[in-house]
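Justification of resources, computational component.

The compute hours requested in this renewal are based largely on the per-chain cost of generating structure records like the one below. Each record pairs the submitted sequence with a full structure-token output. That output is archived, and it is also reused by downstream analysis tasks.
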Amino acid sequence: MKRPIQALLLVLSGLGLLHVSLFTDLCLRYVKEGMRPMLVASGAVLLILGVAEAWAQRRPGRSDEHAPHRDHADDGSSHGHDHSAVPRVAWLMLLPALSLLFYAPPALGAYTAARQAPKAVPERAHFDPLPKASPLPMTLTDFTTRVQQDRKQAIKGRSILMTGFVTPEKQAGSWYLTRIILTCCAADAQSIKVRIYGRPALSPNTWVSVTGTWHRGGTLGTKSAPVALDARTVKKITRPSNGYTDNLPFPAP
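The structure output for this chain reads:
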């Protein structure tokens, strides 16, 4: 690979990172908000290195065509050619660089969640009283924990409001309200799901708010209780800006 092409790849990679992290919110499809400053810094460094390398090529005596070739025969080597060139596999860097600039991959969603087992929720020994609000906003994790661990059955009969995106279910008559949680980036993504009954599913990956009550089955407050909701209303919403958490939603930017 010629040195001018190396400089071009560095510039494209830097511009791609800056495009998704500084000039747009596309990076939030793949990493948590806290990782954004590091992506901006990485993009800036790559861009500076690429520009510096390109500038160096303009100096006399730096072009590949006029660079002296080393004669390995003088030092006993039998190869007789220069090994300083970058391997051809480096061309593969061109694809992700162009992808970040012109076609950023979509966010994780129903396809990923449908192929994952639900994230295990932590064990809890104590539960605070629930607020009296109706419907009661809850995260999917809190709902799951209350359904399967709260022996006082405080959730029984309560109207619950939750938000997430639609994940289809093979079983007829139900679908999943889903959240994907990132610890760091898309590579460690885990999903948490609540099965929804009583209302037809919208298109996969559609973000919705769902209001309803716990779907009866098993013994509430034990592992036998289904993590499910009988929905009364399902409303389409805009994806919240904290879409890769299981916190209560706040509006999209």
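The beta strands are 136-137, 160-168, 174-181, 190-197, 207-214, 228-236. The chain is about 25% helix and 15% strand.
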